[in-house]
Every structure is written in structure tokens, then in C-alpha cells.
Design goal:
Number of helices: 14
Number of strands: 14
Helix content: 25-40%
Distance between the termini: 41 Å
Shape: elongated
Structural class: alpha/beta
Largest sheet: 11 strands, mixed
Strand content: 15-25%
Radius of gyration: 25 Å
Length: about 475
């Protein structure tokens, strides 16, 4: 009998010592009912559109490290306060500063004509006039003999295909990231690529590249897709020479800021749900779909939650990340600054794939929180969003935080035409559908509210070790 009593006592002690996150996480019925009302209210609200219009009109393009970057940081602080966020603050993000000052290219010789190009971020300046060697893809460039491109310009002519999930960017982006260094290793004096895009407009797509350590960088640029077609046709006719002249390059260090606004939770204010988008953009357009839309969607969603008669238990933190475009630098800085309190982050999601309608949802939550994930999915279903339990991943700036143990959430936007606009002069406000933007705001509002009001933890146990 005594043994039995000891066993019972031991079991009770173990249960008492078990961390709270191991219990099944659920969302109260009252919260689900409130979310249904929030969803309909958000669909009729135009705050998201007004925020995107304000950022793209009053600040415009926001190249990291530029004068407009500083204006964007000031704009974001003012906008959070105007929207009534309880707390607003900034956190520094320091990085090398790259500048674009001028760029042009042309075919020279018998078929002389201008080419529409843009320098890749990270390219050095310089002028190169040399024969062009065309490669169908990155693998073909990699297979070129060492030294075979001495005194020549490498031209990688890979065509991305449009897809709802943007899967073609995996290869298109890899050409931009790896191609210039690979070309240098083969002896090239310059690098050109067909833009990593899916449009047929004469607008080239920029984006960051980095040269491997120990290499001497060469001028590197992207051709608009029609110009890539033109250069490929000329190359098929015989030798073709291009003159590429870039005025750009790195110029010291710059300190920007992540701008953060928080809606304080009613009972667990130190625990947070993170949503957001990145504040910077490339300099060719006004950064509407990439990523003023993400900033507007998440700011508006949190504002709608703040206006509810009963706040969620946890706080909702909206982050306008700095310098995502040149290497997720704001996301990395936030993750490092908050490494010690990563366990207080309930879920994290980023809107950074334009403003197309959200069509799928999932989280990376462990088994004990799958029921709550399904409950959120059910609340999102009236918006045309399906539950995709075997899909999804962290957004770009959320990734470093997830690496610290925070659970990701995924609200998949339809990116069928995203790479028509991505990193181009065509990335402007008129490309955003207000109704699709409102659907995004509604989805983020419902998701953030329910995640913040769940009974239990979406995490994997980091919370138990948090101070």
C-alpha cells in the first residue's frame, strides 16, 4: 500500500513539474466567435491600403542605407503612433552601404543598339567592353573550362517560369547570387543575366549578389527579359560585343533600424506573437508589393485587434524589418537581440510575397498545438484559405528567429504575378488589388488574434527556459 502511495505521489509530482507547453493547446470558443466578427470587420476596412499608399507615396523607394531609408524609419515610427499602438521603439541594424549612381549597356559593332539593364546590388562600378558568351543556365557556366572566359562577359540566359508559390525563384535567384562569382572563377571580365523574373516588359530586375572571398569583383547586371531575348538572338547569329558601364559600389557603413510597434496583451503581455514585413525596398520602383504591402497588412491587422473590446491574452508585435533585401540583416539583428527571450515568442509570421490573396495556412507547431493550428485554419477558411498541414516554412526575416527555437506560421500568398514586378521599376501602388489586400489583412488579424489568445503554447519548449 505504501509503495502504491509513493507511486501516486511520484506521478503527481512529475505532472506538477511538467512544463505547461506539453498540454494540448486549444483556442477558447469565445475567441473563435470574436475572430469571426474580426474577420468580417477587416474585410470592410481600408487601413491596410491607406498605409501602403502612405509609405509608397510619402517615402517612395527605400534603398537600404539611403536618405529615404532614414525617412522610412521616421515614417514607420509616426505611423505606429498614429494607429494607436501601445509601444513603439527602434532597434539598430548596421550594415555596409551600397549605392547605385548610374548604369547603361549597349551592343556595339555591326548591330549596335542599347540594352535595358540594371546593376545587381553588390556589384562594383566599372566599364567593360567585351565579347559575350551565352550559357543556358548556371550548370552550363559551371561546366565551362577554367580560364575560358578571360576577356569576355558571361551571359546566363535562364528563363524563370511563373508559379503560385514562386518556386522558379529558387533557380533564378541562385543565378544572381552565385553567377557573378562563378564567372570570375572562369576568368570573366563582366557578368550579365536574364532577369530573375516572369514578365515580358522591358524592365530589368535587380537584387543582391555577393562575391566569394578572395575574388576580384567584376561589373554585374541583369537584362530585362526582352533584352535578354534580343541578346540571345544576336549571339546565335555570331560573335557579339557588349559595352557595360556601371557607376555603383559599396561606400562605408550605415546604421538603420528595425521599427517595432506592439499591442499589449491583457494577461500575458510579455509573451508575443510576431508579425511584420520589411521596410526597405530596392530603388527602381516604389517598393509597393515588396514590401510596403507586408508592412501595411500587418500594421492594419494588429490595429484591428487593438480595437477589440477584449484584447487577446498575449501581445502582438509588428516588426518593420530593416534591410531584408541585402541579406535579411534586420531579421538577423532582431533574432540576436532577442535570443535570450526567444521562448516568449508564441508564433512568428512574415508577409513578404506581395499582396495576392492568401490561399493556404499552416504552422510549424509541435503535436500538442496541432489542434489549435487546425482551429485557426477553420477560422480562416471563409476567406478561401485552406489548411495545408504538410506545407509551409518561415518567412525570410522570421527565419533567424525560428533558428532560435521560435515556431513559424505560414500564410501563403498567391505569387502568380509576383515575379512580374519583383525588384523592378514596375513595383508600384497601382499593381495592388485593394480587395486582395483586405483579404490579407483579415487573415493576419484573425491569425494573430487567435494565436495570441490561445490557451497553451505553440512552441517546442523554449518557453520553459526563458527568463
Amino acid at each position: 500500500m505504501r509503495t502504491a502511495l509513493l507511486a501516486v505521489a511520484l506521478s503527481a509530482a512529475l505532472l506538477a513539474a511538467a512544463p505547461a507547453y506539453a498540454a494540448e493547446t486549444r483556442i477558447p470558443e469565445r475567441s473563435l466567435q470574436q475572430a469571426a466578427q474580426l474577420r468580417e470587420r477587416a474585410l470592410a476596412d481600408d487601413t491596410g491600403w491607406k498605409i501602403v499608399e502612405s509609405l509608397t507615396t510619402e517615402v517612395g523607394p527605400r534603398l537600404a542605407g539611403s536618405e529615404a531609408d532614414a525617412r522610412a524609419v521616421a515614417w514607420a515610427q509616426a505611423k505606429f503612433r498614429e494607429l494607436g499602438f501601445d509601444k513603439v521603439w527602434t532597434e539598430p541594424v548596421t550594415f555596409p552601404k551600397w549605392e547605385r549612381r548610374g548604369e547603361q549597356a549597349a551592343v556595339v559593332g555591326a548591330h549596335a543598339q542599347p540594352l535595358a539593364i540594371t546593376a545587381l546590388g553588390g556589384s562594383p562600378g566599372g566599364t567593360v567592353e567585351a565579347p559575350v558568351v551565352r550559357f543556358a543556365d548556371l550548370a552550363a557556366l559551371e561546366a565551362a573550362p577554367e580560364g575560358s572566359l578571360a576577356g569576355r562577359i558571361a551571359f546566363v540566359d535562364f528563363q524563370m517560369q511563373a508559379a503560385r508559390d514562386g518556386r522558379g525563384y529558387r533557380e533564378g535567384g541562385a543565378i544572381r547570387a552565385k553567377g557573378p562569382s562563378l564567372a570570375v572563377r572562369k576568368g570573366a571580365a563582366g557578368f550579365l543575366m536574364r532577369s530573375a523574373g516572369t514578365d515580358n516588359h522591358r524592365v530589368p530586375h535587380t537584387g543582391i549578389t555577393r562575391f566569394d572571398e578572395g575574388l576580384v569583383p567584376v561589373p554585374s547586371a541583369a537584362l530585362s527579359i526582352p533584352d535578354a531575348d534580343q541578346l540571345a538572338r544576336l549571339a546565335a547569329r555570331g560573335p557579339v560585343t557588349v559595352k557595360l558601364a556601371l557607376d555603383c559600389g559599396w561606400d562605408g557603413q550605415y546604421t538603420s533600424h528595425n521599427v517595432i510597434g506592439e499591442v499589449t496583451g491583457r494577461s500575458l503581455p510579455k509573451e508575443v506573437v510576431v508579425i511584420g514585413g520589411h521596410l526597405d525596398s530596392w530603388d527602381l520602383g516604389t517598393g509597393a508589393v515588396d514590401d510596403a504591402a507586408g508592412v501595411g497588412i500587418t500594421m492594419a491587422a494588429a490595429r484591428l485587434v487593438a480595437q477589440l473590446p477584449r484584447r487577446p491574452a498575449r501581445s502582438i508585435r509588428v516588426i518593420a524589418w530593416a534591410n531584408e533585401e541585402q541579406g535579411l540583416l534586420g531579421g538577423k539583428a532582431y533574432a540576436e537581440a532577442h535570443a535570450a527571450d526567444a521562448g516568449r515568442h508564441q508564433l512568428a509570421a512574415e508577409s513578404d510575397f506581395g499582396a495576392g490573396r492568401i490561399y493556404a495556412f499552416n504552422t510549424g507547431a509541435p503535436e500538442h498545438a496541432r489542434a489549435a493550428t487546425e482551429q485557426i485554419a477553420q477560422a480562416l477558411a471563409p476567406l478561401g484559405i485552406e489548411y495545408a498541414p504538410d506545407k509551409g516554412s518561415a518567412g525570410p526575416d522570421v527565419g533567424p528567429l525560428v533558428a532560435k527555437g521560435v515556431t513559424w506560421a505560414w500564410l501563403a500568398q498567391d505569387g502568380s504575378d509576383y515575379f512580374h514586378l519583383h525588384h523592378t521599376a514596375d513595383d508600384t501602388l497601382d499593381k495592388i488589388d485593394p480587395a486582395a489586400l483586405a483579404q490579407n489583412v483579415a487573415a493576419y488579424a484573425v491569425f494573430a488574434y487567435l494565436a495570441a489568445d490561445a490557451e497553451g503554447d505553440f512552441g517546442s519548449g523554449a518557453k520553459a527556459a526563458a527568463p
